[in-house]
Amino acid sequence: MSISVSSCSFHFMKPHVFSAVMSGKTNKMRVPFDLKEGQSRIFHELPSGLSMEVIVQKKKKKKHKNVEKNQTLVFVHGSYHAAWCWAQHWLPFFSDSGYDCYALSLLGQGESDEPSDSVAGTLQTHARDVADFISRNIASPPIVLGHSFGGLIIQYYISNLGSDKLKENLYPKLRGAVLVCSVPPSGNSGLVWRYLFSNPIAAFKVTRSLAAKAFQTSLSLCKETFFSATMEDHIVKRYQELMKESSRMPLFDLRKLNASLPVPSVPNCPLEVLVLGAQNDFIVDAQGLKETADFYGVSPICVEAVAHDMMLDTSWEKGAEVILSWLNGLDE
């Protein structure tokens, strides 16, 4: 599934897109994420008038690089997370490697505005919000990275890419996609049922942790759900607080979401896809990882000794380096 893409050229953010919403913004998260050196927080105004938080980190100028990368990475988080989950480690890593990076907070998450509904959106509306950001701010096809349910959103985005001109206007072309510990195309129901039959205790823990949001109050359950056992408790506590503040409303109505699945198939997928999993993932099992990889006709890569939150875990650089190697291969 290769695609021949000419070298890309980027432009900077269009000032008018953000100028109307930059001023007067107040923190929605009572436990704010402090930006790192080289990062900025801007707000992308959607057609609805609501604004999405975007954490930006531009590539660092390399004095001794003969070839300069002209690629943009757009990061999409999953449930109970926001743009900050990428900004902690991966935005500095990839910007230092020569990429302009944009991490989005979906509506109702992080510092983004909340819609009037009881949930943040649907698979379709979240994908359209990502597409709107790309169409108005990124000049050349970017590489998108989606984690967990964010990966499912990216899968829906990909399913809408095609030769139809209307779709092309709504969903700009992508250079590539990285699905990180992604929920498979059929959704999370298969994961739950497999746990029920193979490991009832794990099924109970996952349901209690995520559906009942017990991870927000139990430090040990938060660690077991998202991180490696070696992560220090004070770091888990910090992420636990950020997760709680990030998810002021559910990302989806899961019943309606599962009723809309599986994601439509993508014959002759028009972009390169990397399917990346974690060996110690407590949420997405090996069969779920294989389902996603088979859907795109690629071989999955499973990173050893990391958990579901690969970008925040103690060995976060392992997954980042696999992705960087894959990105470098796109340039060859």
Structure, explained:
- This protein has 332 residues and is an alpha/beta fold.
- The protein has a single domain (15-187, 249-330), classed as Rossmann fold (3-Layer(aba) Sandwich).
- It is 38% helix and 13% strand.
- It is built from 13 helices and 8 strands.
- An 8-stranded mixed sheet has the order 1-2-4-3-5-6-7-8, sandwiched between helices.
- The longest helix has 15 residues, at 123-137.
- It starts with 14 loop residues before the first helix and ends with a helix.
- This is AB hydrolase-1 domain-containing protein.
The fraction of residues in strands falls at 5-15%
Number of helical segments with 4 or more residues: 13
Distance between the termini: 15 Å
Low-confidence spans: 1-24
Domain AB hydrolase-1: 73-313
Pfam families: Abhydrolase_6 (PF12697)
Protein name: AB hydrolase-1 domain-containing protein
InterPro entries: AB_hydrolase_1, AB_hydrolase_fold
